[in-house]
Amino acid sequence: MNLKDCAACTAAMAMFQIVSHNWSLLPSLQLPLPKLLILQSLCVKASTPPSSWYTDPSFLQLELQHVFFRGWQTVGFTEHVENPCDFFSGRLGNVEYLVCRDAKGDLHAFHNACRHRAALLVSGKGSKSCFSCPYHGWTYGLNGSLLNANRMAGIQNFNKDDFGLVPINIATWGPFVLINLDKDIPFHQKSTAEKVEYEWLGDGSEIMSTNLNYLSVKHVRRREYVIDCNWKVYCDNFLDGGYHVPYAHKGFSSSLNMNTYTTEVYEKIIVQRCESASTNDNRLGSDAFYAFVYPNFMVSRYGPWMETNLVLPMTSSKCQVIFDYFLDETLMDDKVFIEKSLEESHAIQVEDVEISERVQRGLESPGYCSGRYVPSVEMAVHHFHCLLHQSINQNLY
Ligand code: FES
Ligand SMILES: [Fe+2]
C-alpha cells in the first residue's frame, strides 16, 4: 500500500492544520515559558506535515512566493560592504541580487540583471567603482543609475534614467545585511530600524542583542555545502532540541552536558542553549547559544566563535547551506586553533549532511507520509512548521 494515499495521512494534514490554526488564534504572550507550555500542549496532538511539503516542487514555489519573497531575509554581513565600492552578490530562489556601498557611503541592493539583455552584472564579492556589464559594456553607478550605454545612435524613446538597476529594499541589524523582496512594499518606503527589527525578529530582538556579543568578532571563513535534502529538513534538524545529538553526533555529544539543553520559543526566533561538559573546551567555551531566525537563518555563539548558517532552497530536494565563521578579534592570528576548530565543526556538519540526506530519501519513499512530534524536545520544530503554515495560509486566502 502507498502510505501517502492512506486515510490516516490525509487526516494528518487536517490535524496539522487544526493544531496550527488554534496556535495562530492564541493571544500573543511576552514570556517564553507560557508560550512553550502552550506549544507543548499543541504539539502533543499534532502530526508533522505531510511529506509532500518536502518533496513537491509546487510547494517550494509557494514557499518562495509567500515566505522568502515576503519579509526581511538575511543575505550577508556589513563587514563585507564596510567600505565605499564594496559589493557582494547572491541568489535567493530565482532572484539574483547584489548589495553594494556607494562612494557616499550609502548601502544599496539591486537586482543583479543588466537592463539591456539581462546578463548578471557581477558575481562573488569585491570592490568596484562601477558595474560594467560583461556582455555589451553598459555601465552602472553604485547608486544603480545607468551611466553609459554604447552605440545607441538612432534609438528612439529611450531615456537613460529609466534604465537604472532595479532597486531592492535593504536594511541592517547588527552585523547582518537584510533584503526584502516583497513586491507589495514600495521601494522608497524607508523602514525605521525599530520597524525592521520588529519585522525580522518579532519579540526576540533583545535576546539576540544580549547574547550575540557580535562587536568583538570578525569574519574568518566561509564554507558552503550543497545537500540533497529539502531546505526544511536541515532546519528541522537544527531545531529538534538536541534530540539527534547523542545518536547522530556520538563524538560531539560528549562535549555537551545534554541535561542542560533548553529550548525557548519566541514569535520569530527560537533559542536553544546547552552547557559544555568540560570547563577546558577552548572551542565551545562554557556554553552554547543557538538561535534560529525564521525562516532559514541560524546564529550560534559559543566560546570565542560566532557561526551563522544560511539555508537556501535550490530545488524541493536540494539546498545550499552557507556557513560563516566569526572569531574573537584577539584570536585572529592563532592559525592552529582556527584550523582545529573549523575541522571539528566540519566533522559535525558532515554528520548533519548525512542524516539530512537519509531523511530526504525516507520522505520520498512511499512508505512514509507523516510522523509525530516528541513534545518534550520538538516543540521548536512544531513552531517552525506552524510559522510556515501561517505564512503560506495567510497569504493564500
Ligand atoms: S546584457 Fe548587459 S550590456 Fe548587454
Ligand atoms: Fe546536528
Describe the model.
The protein has 2 domains: 256 residues, Naphthalene 1,2-dioxygenase Alpha Subunit, Chain A, domain 1 (Alpha-Beta Complex); 110 residues, Rieske [2Fe-2S] iron-sulphur domain (Rieske Iron-sulfur Protein), CATH 2.102.10. β15 and β16 form a beta hairpin. α1 packs antiparallel against α2, α1 packs across α11 and α4 crosses α11. The protein starts with 6 loop residues before the first helix and ends with a helix. The strands form 3 sheets. It has a 7-stranded antiparallel beta sheet with strand order 1-10-9-4-3-2-5, with helices on one face. The chain has 11 helices and 17 strands. By secondary structure, the protein is an alpha+beta fold.
Describe the secondary structure blueprint for this structure.
Layout: H1 7-24, H2 32-43, H3 52-55, H4 57-68, E1 72-77, E2 86-92, E3 95-101, E4 107-111, E5 125-127, E6 131-132, E7 139-140, E8 146-148, E9 167-173, E10 176-180, H5 193-201, H6 205-212, E11 217-227, H7 231-238, H8 245-248, H9 250-253, E12 256-265, E13 269-276, E14 287-293, E15 297-302, E16 305-315, E17 318-328, H10 335-364, H11 379-396
Antiparallel strand pairs: 1-10, 2-3, 2-5, 3-4, 4-9, 6-7, 7-8, 9-10, 11-17, 12-13, 13-14, 14-15, 15-16, 16-17
Helix pairs in contact: 1-2, 1-11, 2-11, 4-11
